[in-house]
Amino acid sequence: MARHGIFAVRDVGSLISETSEEGTQLKKAVSANQLTAMGVGAIIGTGIFVVIGEGSAIAGPAVILSFVLAAVACAFSALSYAELASSIPVSGSAYTYTYATLGELVAWIIGWDLILEYGVSVAAIAVGWGGNLNAFLDAAFGFALPEAISSSPEDGGVFNLPAVFIVLAITLLLVRGVTESVKANLIMVVIKLAVLVFFIVVAFVNFGTGNFTPFAPDGVDGVTAAAAIIFFAYIGFDAVSTGSEEARNPSRDLPLAIIGSLVICTIFYVLTVVGAIGIATPEQMSASDAPLAAALDQGAGLTWAAAILALGAVVAITSVVLVIFYGQTRIFFAMCRDGLLPRRLATVNQRYGTPARLTVVLGILIAILAALVPLSTIVELVNIGTLFAFVLVNIGVIVLRRTRPDMPRPYRVPWSPVLPLLGIVFAIYLMADLPLDTWLRFLGWLAAGLLIYLLYGYRHSRLRTADVPPPSEVSPSSELPPRADDAGAGEDGPRS
User: Fold this and answer.
1) What share of residues in the chain are helix, strand, coil (percent, to 5)?
2) pLDDT in tens, 370-379
3) pTM of the predicted structure, to 2 decimals
């Protein structure tokens, strides 16, 4: 039968029904506010604290427009994520959506791609966390960790202890429970938004207009080139969709959280960049690895503020590690439950309600990567992996609208297929601007994944082990996402 081929499509109803299986059932314990905080936690990190300097060097003061353009580019894909997340409230994000629309092989490819995007990203962010921790210790106390225990061997050290510490600490938090994790993230989001508010207030108190001319020294080309870099400051809203299965009311909360987190971050980004240019020149910011701190120090003459910004960066990056690592575990969990990776890893710990075994395994592997491997080259793969996922999610919306027009859609992308097509165009445009070496490494990673699929995933897939009923045996009502009044029992999990 066609359903057993490499392009077999999973029935939406069977995907949703699997979320209630004994032993692999996650708690429905995450509220709309917590989901939104997850999005903000994943987005606001090293991007605004670092990339603003790179963007201003390219576009000058017009980097303000670059931030807006990048937000618009993300918005099209965010709308598509919102539709699919509300319609298919299952862990796995783009992997699951692709499985339900484009078939198993494409789903495996995007799932393998997301392992690259999330896993390597967590390791890279952990290394950045260690660097910012040293910057804070130096700024606040005049002390820094020795290079031997704060750098990889290739960078002159023995191993990166801070990176290992933060990965293992987040691993333990994620094992402990999703409720504890989202509460910790909410606290960190409040702190880092407070730090950005501090910067904005100080900047506008000392604001001047002299740095805004010439506004766009390189014209439209400079604005678009900077937007291609700044785009990556917005990456992270897609991590919200990995929490679909644990949302109390996914049909309502997921679209609000995905779109809401992007809107909140865009507002903060624009206010921050306007304030930064109001107190410092693009040259001052681009010359520093900490452009916001440089703007306060050199532009406003407030050297004491550097320690506050450094602390804000540490907290901001901690929440990014938490949310991105959470997303990685849920994508891996979905792939294991579908049989494409070892199913025993999809077992949910009955005490904590989390895939504890899987989380520990991933935590150890990522900690080793962060401790020993310099990620300056590998991290470029995160960018192309994210954009590739955006392309397939937008395609998934278009395909599912045609193949399943009657499927319940609590949220619908307006003006489809125009907006999803624009999302595809923006993503491909930004992908085309990436170096050839990045493309070659990306293709090499996908080739390795394809080999694993052919040797293991294809034979162990639930579609070939008689664990998944054919579409005709799935009740249409099982495709409906939970109603608001029976979406779950909150902290104690689904109602019986």
Assistant:
1) 75, 0, 25
2) 887 765 555 5
3) 0.83
